[in-house]
Amino acid sequence: MPRITVTVDGIRYEEDVEPRLLLVHFLRDRLGKTGTPIGCDTSNCGACTVLLDGKSVKSCSVLAVQADGCDVVTIEGLAPGNGQMHPLQRAFHEEHALQCGYCTPGMVMAALDLLRENPDPSEEEIRHGLEGNLCRCTGYCNIVRAVRRGAQEMGQAQEAGQEVRTP
Ligand code: FES
Ligand code: FES
Question: In the predicted model, what is the mean pLDDT of residues 68-80?
């Protein structure tokens, strides 16, 4: 069985994994990272999105062995601690950008990757950037507003010299 070394949310793990094990199952079942949900079996919904070396990927479409030597960030690694939320999480909360919340971890992680490439996206750019992530509840308007607000708050926090997790 192959052995992989992977850093997840800042902690380094060395694990033996089946070659066919999906990254999402490794995260959830081996590491207990259940903040990353599985929303479909067709690699369609984006709920399982995490950052792999800074880029958003659907963790149900990546093998755990492909993450060998990589840095993975899940929704559980975003918040700075002390009970505080990441600005993007706070924006989702304040703009009521979730109902059941099932899509939310993937939306936040995909949005973070979008903001890395484009720190001040238009509504159209946000809709385009998140088109691989499906939400069955909200109709997307509040999600778009939340990403705009999160982008502004991340920018303000960085200007104020605060450390903000970005990919
Ligand atoms: S669970 Fe990965 S895309 Fe739906
Ligand atoms: S909030 Fe329910 S799927 Fe998006």
Answer: 96
pLDDT at 161 over 80: yes
**pLDDT at 19 > cutoff 80:** yes
Ligand 1 mean position to 57 CA, how many Å?
10
The closest of 33, 35, 30 to 16, measured between CA atoms, is: 30
Which residues are near ligand 2 (CB < 6 Å)? 98-103, 135-138
Q: How many domains does the chain have?
A: 2
Q: How far is CA 104 from the centre of its chain?
A: 9
Does 151 share its domain with 125? yes
Whether 19 and 64 share a structural domain: yes
Claim to verify: residue 103 and residue 131 sit in the same structural domain: yes
CA 112–ligand 2 middle distance (angstroms): 18
Count Cβ atoms below 10 Å from residue 71 Cβ, excluding itself: 17
Question: Is the CB of residue 22 less than 8 Å from the CB of residue 59?
Answer: yes
